[in-house]
Amino acid sequence: MTHIGTRLKDLLKLQIGNLSETIEREGRTIFGGSNNLLANEEITDFCLEFLQLLIALLESKDPTDDTSPQFHALEMFFNNLSKQILMRGGRVEDLVRFNQFMQRTLIETLEKEDQSLAKGGKQAVHQDFQELKEILLFLSGTFNELDLAVFQAYLEEKERTIYAQEAELRETATPITQIWDGVLTLPIIGTLDSSRTMLVMEALLNRIAQDRAQAVVMDLTGVKNIDSQVSHHLIQMVRAVQLMGSDAILTGIRPEIARALTSLNIDLGGVTTRASLSDGLKEAFRRMNIQVTHQQH
Description:
By secondary structure, the chain is an alpha/beta fold. The chain has nine helices and five strands. Strands 1-2-3-4-5 form a five-stranded mixed sheet, sandwiched between helices. The longest helix is centred in the middle third of the chain and has 52 residues, at about 120-175. The N and C termini lie far apart (about 90 Å).
């Protein structure tokens, strides 16, 4: 592969200006213009750095060694570039298409050179054909690995996006508010399943510890219906709050919810309930010896 690496390296050095210009022009079409994913200067720098890293790989001891520092540098360059483009709203298919264009450009340049060398006779043609075949296999293998680097970046970016969305969902799903020093409110909206209960409970217990809350008012006004499983999860949350040393106060239990809890024989003994969130807050303040008075103007 040393001789092949030398030939390809010499060709790249000789044609680096034309190659860079051709690749740069395609890069502006895909990533510049109306897409505005990369500035012209960024595209220029990218094209030159790509060719320089490819030359460095060809100058290495074994250009086919995908564990070499030179190959790793080329791979990481593509991975980082892909992340940058994807974070700006680019598409993974455009990155793959651009990689394919660069590979095709290098192959076409080689073929043009091969045609000019073919004038050396049948023996030369045969030797050049074998050499070109090995170079094409090298380029194919290298760009396949670079495509994998692109997809790896895509998966990492997807995972980052999903994690960010989950974090945002956790925030919106558990709107815990500190109404007063030591008093937290948690409006429960929708249905409590096992996963959501664990999510809400974890966030609530962390806030109790963080704010040293003495009372938690859990408002059920937004709970549409309740069954044995939902009621079980609700009691779990109440008991967990009590184990943290806080008072749990349930509010907003509508008549149909009360009837359902009764029919399910749910034991709410030791659990304080109040009709409305306002009444629940008054109870929390009373237990903390906080007096709230209406000030007349």
